[in-house]
Amino acid sequence: MGAALSESASTLASTGNSIDETLAMITAMSEVTHSASESGDALNSLAMQLRGYDEETGAYSKNIAELTTSIAQLTATASTPSGISIFTDDTESTYKSTYQIMKDISAVWDSMSNKNQVKLLDVLGGSQNGDNVSALLGNMSQAQNALQSSIYSTGSAYAKQEEWLQSLEGKVQQFQTAFQGLSQAVMDSDFLKGLVDTGTGLI
Question: Rounded to two decimals, what is the model's pTM?
Fold first, then answer.
């Protein structure tokens, strides 16, 4: 997960995704591909592709309307006749997060024709990441489960650490660590001997 985040965290954050959403997509995609690092690369590419980045030219397309139209037309179904938009409203001034776009597309994915699915994978994944995008769309329910787990687990590690620090084992470990630090800082052996003798007497 760390390797995947190192590949994608910056780009996905800049395209409106929370750390929880990013981890959720990595989880869902890598569960199918069995490669978290590859998933990180693919998500990085997907996020840029959804903003009009052309991998062949290495530049962002000025004609984002073409991308918007393609996605809308390919995702048009009986339940969503206008297709899926990559924007939050009709003003087309604010993009949805990558996670939200993929969630919306996954909701109509099974209703799309196979031909349109293939075309959409090419639009979203390009020539190299179509399989990875397909893996994410097919496992988006797992991404939603992972998102909820990530959100509700916030602070649990900290709470466990605090619980351990208050235990007898934790207190002893803190004492040992503090004593080691003192031992390294104080070079007077007579002082250390006296401190040890005092501690022994207290025990």
Answer: 0.70
Q: How large is the C-alpha radius of gyration of the chain? A: 26
In the numeric block, which tokens belong to residue 148?
């909820």
Residue 102: count of CB within 10 angstroms of its CB: 26
Query: How far, in whole angstroms, is CA 93 from its chain's centroid?
Result: 25
Helix segments in 62-188, DSSP class H: 64-74, 98-109, 114-125, 130-138, 140-152, 156-165, 168-185
| Per-residue pLDDT reduced to its tens digit, 63-78 | 788 889 999 999 999 9
List, for residues 10-66, the tens digit of each pLDDT value. Answer: 888 989 999 889 989 999 999 998 888 888 889 998 998 898 866 666 566 657 888
d(CA 99, CA 108) in angstroms, rounded, equals 15
Return the residue matching tokens 């590859």.
38
Q: What are phi and psi of 201, to 5 degrees?
A: -65, -40
Ramachandran category for residue 184: left, alpha or beta (phi over 0 → left; psi -120 to 50 → alpha): alpha
